[in-house]
Amino acid sequence: MTSETQSMAVPAFMDGDDSERKLAIICSKGTLDMAYPGLILANGALENGIETHLFFTFWGLDMVNKKTMKKLTMTSAGNTSMRFPGTAISMPQWMSWIPGMTKFQSWMMRKQIRDLEVPTVPDMLQHVADAGGHLWACKMSADMMKLELDDMFDEVEDIINVDAFMNLSEGAQVLFI
Amino acid sequence: MATQVIAGQEVAVDDEGFMTDPSQWSEEIAAVLAKNIAIDTLTDDHWKVIKWLREDYAVEGETATLRRVSTMGGVSTKELYTLFPKKPAKKMSYVSGLPKPKGCV
């Protein structure tokens, strides 16, 4: 080793490179807008060397159901945070009932996401899995919706019950979305 | 702004040790930086990523995210995690003499 390298500090981001930090994210929503927070957080965690598990339950199963994952939608119904672009004016609730409005709003959001070069939900799931993230489906929800492992995105490792989730999330920080 | 002597050359670095002037970078510096983060040898696969990142930075003005390296640079996410284990985004930019990526994905 040369004298130069000795005078160099190991960068701070190397701290905790061997940390045991673990994150478990419960994804319980199946709308387009609520699918992303879990996926983006999972990606960020993985990029920081954190062991990451995603547990899809109830409506969250839509995110990994092969039939629905490409067709997630969102609506302004009951969502007063949905405003006319660039203003503080909430979209009137009656507008949500205009035929085709949900379809239009979902299309609009998908376009905005694409414009930011953020991947689609299936691509994002693949990216998270490739980065070493673990995907799990909830047994009770799958039973309710009559879904089996074959119906799920290929990277879903298994359908597990809450007991198994408790085991794998031991010592983890848990987020419910 | 702090400076460090790396491979016999004085270079500007930020608080986290990332180089702040990509023009001061050289392949010799990259080899030293890699050793500093426990990558003993830079293989051809490492160099492919480093060179693409620097070319992309020269055009875009910001460091590519992992997602961008995999879709545009042709090095898969899995491969990036193998080449630069645990914290690939930070490690690849550190060795390439670039700031860490700003984008979330």
What does this structure look like?
The complex is a heterodimer of chains A (about 180) and B (about 100). By secondary structure, chain A is an alpha/beta fold. Chain A has a domain at about 20-70 and about 120-175: Hypothetical Protein Ychn, Chain: A, CATH 3.40.1260. Chain A has helices at about 5, 30-45, 100-115, 120-130, 140-145, 160-170, and strands at about 20-25, 50-55, 135-140, 155-160, 175. Chain A has a 5-stranded parallel beta sheet with strand order 4-3-2-1-5. In chain A, strand 1, helix 2 and strand 2 form a beta-alpha-beta unit. Mean pLDDT of chain A is about 90; it is low at about 1-5. A two-stranded antiparallel ribbon of chain B has the order 1-2. Chain B has one domain (about 1-95). The termini of chain B are far apart. The interface of A and B includes residues 4, 10, 44, 119 and 131 of A.
Relevant terms:
heterodimer; A: alpha/beta; Hypothetical Protein Ychn, Chain: A; 15% strand; B: 105 residues
What secondary-structure arrangement, pairings included, does this model have?
The complex is a heterodimer of chains A (177) and B (105).
Chain A: H1 3-7, E1 22-27, H2 32-47, E2 51-56, H3 101-115, H4 121-130, E3 134-138, H5 139-144, E4 156-160, H6 162-168, E5 173-176
Parallel strand pairs in A: 1-2, 1-5, 2-3, 3-4
Helix pairs in contact in A: 2-4
Chain B: E1 2-6, E2 9-13, H1 27-36, H2 44-60, H3 66-71, H4 77-83, H5 88-95
